[in-house]
Amino acid sequence: MDPNNPGPEEYGRDGDGHAPRQRPPRESLTSDFGQPAPVLARTVQLVSGDFLLTVNPVDGSEIEPCPPAERPARPVKLTEAERAETERAARPPVPPGPALPEFPLTARQDEREKLVRLLARGRSVRLTGPAGSGRTRLLDVVAEDCADLAPDGVVRLDGHRRSADDLLYDLFYAVHSAPLYRPGRDELADCLREVGAVVVLDDLGFGGAALDELLDATPECAFLLGATPDVPAPSADSAVEEVVLDGLDRAAGLDLLERAVDRDLTEDESNWAGDLWFESEGLPLRFVQAGALLRQRDRLRAGTSAVDEFGVFEDVWPGDPSDELPADAVDGEEIPLPSLGEAAAPAPLLAARLSASARATLRFAVALGGELPHQAHLPALVGDTHADAALGELAACGLVAPAGSRYRLAAGVPAQLEAAGYADGAQAQARTAAQHYAWWAGHPSVTPERVCAEADAVLAALAVLSPLASAAEEGETDVAVQLARTAAPAFAAGLHWNAWERTLRAGAEAARLAGDVAEEAYFHHELGIHALCAGELDRARAELEASIGLRGAAADKRGTVAGRRALALVSDRSGIPVALAPTAGEEVPDAQYEESASPPRGVPTAFPELQPPTDTGLIVHRTSPVPTPIPTSKAGVGLKGLARRNLVAAGAGALLVAVLGTVVTLGATSENNPGTPSENVGVNPSASQGADDGSLGADRRTEEGGDTGDATSRPADPGPDGAPGTSDDPTPTATESGEASADPSDTGKPDDSTPTPSTPTRPPSSSAKPSTSPKPSDPTDKPTEPTEEPTEPTEEPTTPTTEPTDDDTPPPATSDSASGPTSSTPTQTESGTSSSASAPQSSEAGTPSSSGTTVI
Q: What are phi and psi of 46, to 5 degrees?
């Protein structure tokens, strides 16, 4: 219908006006073809020491102090059944297909008895032998002999690329039941001191002080260590016995070869085996591989008809390698024995006679640095549904050897295959493996424990692809970054923290090369969390600050919040506030040099320049408060920047107080003079008051046609301070002095001389008004400051033309002036003149004075 004119159906009714029909219920088993619900991120919450860690694959892990209610109980030891299950999981899986022949331990009985005897005494032993000498096989046999020696049984560990700290935690989880709990160093040491077991550790990669740390942490354990001669030896104080494993003798080598082919050797084969023993120095691995060459030769001798029918390099091989040689095999075409060079490096020849799936598996193993993927991953990697059977073929030929719970290429095999061209296209093989593991590790059905079992293959793929990472197309992620992004949370949740750290470092490098800022910020955040859990606070702070800075650039607010929470926890643990140093992700302002603001008329100096007075008006200093500078940096500056600003502000305030004090002092000593003292000081020395006559000793200024006064009149009013003779005493004017004079020698003219610079007076005001309400004089009253600056007088006061007589002397009166009250009775000076500190008198007759009387 018309979308602009909706009908009644769109208002809940049918076209006929009836109510709409009820919708039929949906069946529960009916598939929903709508948009599938997004898969929730797999978050795992675990306890690490004193922290509660929430592994969040989306925004980054969250860490906080563990609440008391969330802390797990003290770990308990596994039962005997649980310990047997743990030991079974530590062994490599059994290859599919027919059972492989098990070779007995040949010519190793003396070493076997010695090792068991030392372990029974509680001594630790290191078994040293070259790769391929049968060291792993001997360790397995001795472990079976020592199953009942210790209360906690036998614990098997793999030392390949493992540190002493990693091995301590591996031993803890092999004996204790502690799901989702990683104890701290102190609790770990307490738990390991109670462990009494025979620890069989193969592929040890360290010695010296690190080995001493491992042995000291487990005083009740006896270690059986397997190492190659290139590994550092134990320290002299470790008390570790040394047992050297040599090669087999010729008779033992021939016996091992006969067991491998399961028949007697011919004379030619015995001579060929003797040459091989001399070249290989009796290494058992060479005889196992030589036995595989003889079995392949026997199969080829079965007849040319079988070769023509199936082909040598076909996937389908007639019969099974363990089958007996056919009776008519001798009648077939004679196959020569391999050359001595082929027997010394048999990997290319052995691989050439294997199935295509087995050869493809070898290419993946060479690309991954010798790490063989689990047999369950081979069908997806190779592209053959029966590729899991390739593991059985490789193990029967001696091309792979067990290493912990997995398989690796045997000693010398990677170099031999690389020389044969199996390393061609290694980057493409590693990329294919990385894409597969990235999908598999991120699948919700895959547990973290399964991902941890493939840690070596995942890390090998990252080691190949991380240096080759590049910027991908828009909307795509580099395969190395994607693999690290999905595998790292699984390693953290599975408590395989060595693999977690290595994955994060490889992912951070790959993200940096690819230019993926958001992913690089995630990896740095996780590295900071890992360092915080490990107790490395300085490294944690650096990683978290780098993450916050990158997430600020990527505008990732949620990730920034998570990073700031973790950084606050680091600061709380280290005792250093976060705000003492700006974080790497914030904009740090440039260095600022803050100075105090100068006064309005500049900063007075100790020796100001002498200038003529240019302004005679009254200067009123009004000091306005200096505004506090507003910090321009962000919240990351914190206490450190605030402390620096406080110091600068304190120094500026001290300088400002000194400046204002100087200004106030100058203003107080200038007696409210309209000019500064420097403007009234001439080039001659300052006048000083004499001790004998009370005069200043300076030449008096003479008016045009006027006389020079004999003395300076001084008021009797002491001023506000109550001390006569100070600078705040009022000065009488010349008019009042002439009126109050009684000396017959007076000239009749008032003395209008200008006072000296040391006692400046206020200029007369031309707009003075008589006081209408006189107030009594109070010497304690303080003068009030004028609200407005008085203007400079335009005319000089004129002298009165009429001489006052004694009879016409007006009575004294008080005056109210701006500078304060004066004395009620003027005091006569030596010249008979007096002056008032109140408003000046008018120069014309008939003008009312300050006392309200008219001067005639």
A: -140, 170
Identify which of 699, 690, 828 has the alpha carbon closest to the alpha carbon of residue 756.
Answer: 699
Q: What is the DSSP letter of 60?
A: -
Three-state DSSP state, 48: strand
Closest CA to 482 of 510, 502, 457, 448: 510
The Cα–Cα gap between 150 and 165 comes to: 23
pLDDT of 118-149, one tens digit each? 999 999 999 999 999 999 999 999 999 999 99
Secondary structure (DSSP) of 707-751: PPPSS----S--TTTT-TTSTTS----HHHHHHT---TT--SS--
**For 196-230, how does the pLDDT look when each residue is reduced to its tens digit (9 = 90+)?**
999 999 999 999 999 999 999 999 999 999 999 99
| Alpha carbon distance, N-terminus to C-terminus of the chain | 115
Is the model's pLDDT at 624 over the cut of 50? no
Q: Which of 854, 773, 853 is nearest to 813 (CA)?
A: 853
Q: Do 255 and 265 touch, CB atoms closer than 8 A?
A: no
How many alpha carbons lie under 13 Å from residue 684 in its C-beta half-sphere?
8
Rank 461-475, 626-640, 677-691 by mean pLDDT and report only the highest: 461-475
Strand pairing class (400-403; 241-244): unpaired
Rounded to the nearest 5 percent, the helix, strand and coil shares of the chain are 40, 5, 55
- Cβ-based neighbour number of residue 356 at 10 Å: 14
Which contiguous run of DSSP H or E holds residue 46?
strand 44-48
- pLDDT at residue number 667: 54
Closest CA to 544 of 431, 636, 429, 474: 636
CA distances from 306 to 303, 313, 334, 354 (A): 6, 12, 14, 16
Q: What is the mean pLDDT of the chain?
A: 73
The length of the chain is: 856
The pLDDT score that the predictor gives to residue 106 is: 84
Three-state secondary-structure class, residue 114: helix
Strands 44-48 and 181-182: parallel
**Residue (of 205, 226, 240, 220) closest to 171 by Cα position:** 220
Q: What is the rounded average pLDDT of the residues 365-378?
A: 95
Chain-centroid distance of CA 463 in Å reads: 25
Q: For residue 468, which of 349, 552, 367, 542 has the smallest C-alpha distance?
A: 367
- Give dist(CA 408, CA 804) in Å, integer: 132
CB environment 271-302: b (16+ within 10 A), e (fewer): ebbeebbeebebbbbbbbbbbbbbbbbbbbbb
Please, what is the Cα angle at 395 between 462 and 393, to 5 degrees? 100
- The count of C-alpha atoms lying within 13 angstroms of the C-alpha of 104, restricted to the half-sphere facing its C-beta, is 8
Half-sphere CA count of 774, side-chain side, radius 13 A: 18
Sequence-separated contacts (24+) of 333-340 with Cβ below 8 Å: 333/301, 333/303, 333/304, 334/301, 335/297, 335/300, 335/301, 337/268, 337/269, 337/272, 337/297, 338/272, 338/293, 338/297, 340/272, 340/275, 340/276, 340/279
- Is the distance from CB of 577 to CB of 638 less than 8 angstroms? yes
| Six token digits for residue 271 | 């001579």
Q: Count of alpha carbons within 13 Å of 555, Cβ hemisphere only?
A: 0
CB atoms near residue 721 (< 10 Å):
13
With tokens 């600061």, the residue in question is 571
Q: Which residue has the tokens 């006006």?
A: 17
Other C-beta atoms closer than 10 Å to the C-beta of 568 total 14
Q: What is the pLDDT of residue 404?
A: 87
Does residue 830 surpass a pLDDT of 50?
A: no
**Residue 172: C-alpha distances to residues 75, 360, 518, 801 (Å):** 10, 38, 36, 120
CA distance 732 to 750: 11
Residue 282's Cβ-side half-sphere holds a number of Cα atoms within 13 Å equal to: 14
For residue 392, what are the CA distances in angstroms to 61, 97, 310, 406, 497?
41, 6, 21, 13, 32
Q: 3-class DSSP state for residue 224?
A: strand
